[in-house]
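Lecture 7 notes: from sequence to structure.

We start with a single chain of 153 residues. Read the sequence below before looking at the structure.
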Amino acid sequence: MNLNKVFIIGRLTVDPQLKTTPGGQSVVTLGVATNRVWTGKTGGRQEETEYHNVVVWGKQAEVASQFLAKGSTVFIEGRLRTRSWKDKQGQNRKTTEIVCERMQLGPRSSGAGARGKAQETPAVSEASREKQEEIPVIDLEADGEIKPEDLPF
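Now the structure, written as tokens:
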């Protein structure tokens, strides 16, 4: 049995840059940092940061470039891939990256606009802040069934 599966939750180290292959496929390369915190043998707090290269293809790449920015939290599910190539000096190079199969955006700060950055707006009234979109509630029947008319979409 073989399994090549990776799950990471971390923060972007740079803004994503959307590129298109000659064949018209969208691709984004992300840098994601993950932290590990533990208590050492002496009782002191230890912290270690790991940096990951992530490649996102297709529609997910377009979503990543539109809604993610440096510092954004993201959940990535994918597989490891190691590539080899020769650089300009003729040296053999290798890199291991995560090929994203599924991506989930993390929470956005209030007032965040596209690309996760806070939008600067002139004085916003208290009433307009309170008018934020409400989360729809699905009312379940006593037997636990969900009716199509109860779905908010």
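The chain has one domain: 6-134. Keep this in mind for problem set 3.
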